[in-house]
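Handoff note, outgoing to incoming analyst
You'll be picking up this chain. Sequence as last confirmed:
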Amino acid sequence: MDEIKQNIIGTVDVLARKIGQRCYKDLGKLAQTADYIEHRLKFSGCDTERQSFTYRGNTYCNILTEVEGTDPAREDILVIGAHYDSVDGTPGADDNASGVAGLLELARLTRRTPLLRTVRFAAFCLEEPPAYMTRHMGSYIHAKSLHDQGIRVHGMISLEMLGYYCDQRGCQYYPSSLFKLAYPNRGHFIAFVGNFSSRRFSNRVKAAYAAVSTVPAESLNGFSVIPGVDFSDHRNYWKFGYPAFMITDTAFYRNPNYHDSGDTPDTLDYDRLAALIKDLHKALAAI
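Most recent structure output, in case you need it:
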């Protein structure tokens, strides 16, 4: 079995099956998840840092690591993040063990073959409700820390649900029927979704990805009024003036198990997920 695919399967299995639900109330399980992420990063040769913060009297943490780029002239960094908590009532295989698995593999691949630009990898806690869309999200804490430290950010990529695909006609939905005129009605693609201010960054990454990819990509840069455009951690980087977008399988527009107990490891397409991560690493080498 391909090493990337094997590692991704292993991570999703640990998070969504062995640990299971990882909502804000599950302090022990969130601690187990953080320990696992830190262990995998260290096993890949990465030094890690815990960014702790409090919410409702409890302590949570982001897990951070940085891989130095090979071109000193590129002084701004790339941030790649994924949240490791799940919503109450679900084991969260696609949402978002798939994103964490992708993050860990991208970090491993980048540690082995560094990119031109330095990359900060961040595993966030508290993306889901009740912290969702508040300043208590782990990604908000991280984005604010970058801003407060004066760190220049080339762009941020949020890995948000990467593993669910469907090939039958009509299985892909959109917030409006108008989207059906421009986008596929099958969920066989990955989506690059951001706001207008981030379109130059997201278009560059998408073009680099399209040049090497086997899993097709679609893109949308629009207003937050479109349901889903700001539904992940990338939204918090916009608040500090950083270009950011998410890579996603479109969540509830495709996956019937979204925020449900049926979001289990056996529902994911690991071949396409592994191909996505492998090709994304190749694409980022050109950024």
